[in-house]
Design goal:
Blueprint: E1 6-12, E2 45-50, E3 64-66, E4 86-91, E5 94-98, E6 104-108, E7 114-118, E8 149-156, E9 162-166, H1 172-179, E10 197-202, E11 218-223, E12 250-256, H2 265-279, H3 281-284, E13 288-293, H4 302-314, E14 317-320, H5 329-342, H6 348-367
Length: 383
């Protein structure tokens, strides 16, 4: 399984069917009149947020999707069948953008949220609609309208409350494995984490256990690959994964203060803060909790106290922990939960946008005469 957080696809809604030119020809009906049926409407293409997907891998190779076209009208006032709608499933947290215009079409932040991205073409009218008292044998009809086509860009941004950032080997993966049920890869070499990971943390029970039965506070933590100096220019793994903490409400900055590291923790904090600011001013403005890690391997507390004093001067909350022994972990988890309680609820703007998108979708569905929607499996079109 590869973690794919970007994809580009082409979608083409179905064309509407053509109206028919026909006349009624029956025995004992010498003047039957026009009887051309209408063409069917083309199928539309929808995107739906699926909570069971966590990657855009399905769109890595299948990049062209076409909905069914409407059938042409026939004689005896028979209308053509409308094309079936197509529903493409994307992970929750996917941002959809029109590549040609740069317009953001949707931000799918809720499971089951559905948005229309390509409207099917309207079917043409048959010649029965053109009959008038002064024009009783019309030979004109309408052609079906073409379906909408678009080039879309998908960008997945994970939904989490707290984002863990820091240099490689700062202890991010070990921490998330300690406070949640996540099992990331942990090793003693840099860049062990190659893709973001999520973990659900409970603040009111033992670390690593959910509190569904007790009704305690829970929040989601995102573990990001390590950053290094110059990441905004592409050094190391770059900053392409920082998009996954743009939605977070709190940033947890982990800094290694153990004896095994000879780095200046204050300088490390400033470097990572600079990389966040280079990526996004909004990200750099998020509340921060500074965490000194590997307390069990720290005998010389000089650098640890220097970092603590630096945070106190900056007004930043500071915690010293050991993920190996568990020292400071319960206090840190409760501090994260308390900080989230003080912050405003997430995705207020996204919810408003989602509501507007849903209203637009409803209006489009009411205007169109498409049949009951059917979920069509994504399929590759002809290249």
């Amino acid at each position: 399984m590869f973690f794919v957080d970007e994809a580009k696809i082409y979608v083409k809604a179905g064309d509407g069917g053509n109206g028919c030119v026909a006349f009624r020809r029956e025995k004992f009906v010498p003047r039957g009149g026009p009887s051309g049926g209408d063409g069917g409407h083309g199928g539309s293409i929808y995107l739906e947020a699926n909570p069971h997907d966590n990657t855009l891998l399905r769109y890595r190779f299948n990049r062209e999707f076409k909905a069914d076209r409407g059938r042409h009208g026939e004689g005896s006032n028979r209308s053509g069948h409308s094309g079936a709608d197509m529903v493409l499933l994307v992970p929750v947290g996917t941002v959809v953008t029109d590549q040609d215009t740069g317009e953001q079409l949707a931000d799918l932040t809720k499971p089951g949220q559905r948005v229309l991205v390509a409207q099917g073409g309207r079917g043409g009218r048959g010649n029965q609609h053109f009959a008038k008292p002064w024009h009783q044998a019309p030979r004109e009809s309408e052609e079906g309208q073409p379906g909408q086509e678009r080039h879309l860009h998908f960008e997945l941004k994970l939904l989490a409350d707290v984002g863990l950032v820091g240099f490689p080997n700062a202890g991010k993966s070990t921490l998330i494995s300690r406070i949640s049920a996540a099992h990331p890869k942990i090793a003693d070499y840099p860049f062990t984490t190659l893709e973001p990971g999520l973990g659900v943390v409970s603040a009111d029970v033992a670390p690593g256990k959910l509190s569904e039965r007790t009704g305690g506070r829970t929040f989601v933590v995102a573990d990001l690959p390590g950053l290094i100096e110059g990441a905004h220019t592409g050094a190391g793994l770059g900053i392409r994964f920082l998009r996954h903490i743009e939605r977070t409400r709190l940033v947890a900055h982990l800094i290694d203060t153990s004896d095994a590291s000879d780095r200046d923790p204050v300088h490390d904090f400033e470097i990572i803060s600079g990389e966040l600011a280079a990526f996004s001013e909004k990200l750099a403005a998020k509340p921060v909790i500074v965490i000194g890690t590997k307390l069990d391997a720290t005998t010389d507390r000089t650098r640890l106290e220097k970092l603590r004093d630096f945070c106190a001067a900056r007004g930043l909350e500071f915690h010293a922990i050991s993920s190996a022994s568990g020292e400071g972990i319960p206090q840190l988890v409760r501090a994260m939960a308390d900080a989230l309680d003080r912050l405003s609820p997430p995705q207020d703007a996204a919810d408003d946008a989602a509501g507007r998108t849903a209203n637009d979708c409803s209006a489009s569905e009411n205007e169109s005469k498409a049949p009951a929607r059917q979920t069509a499996a994504p399929r590759t079109g002809d290249h």
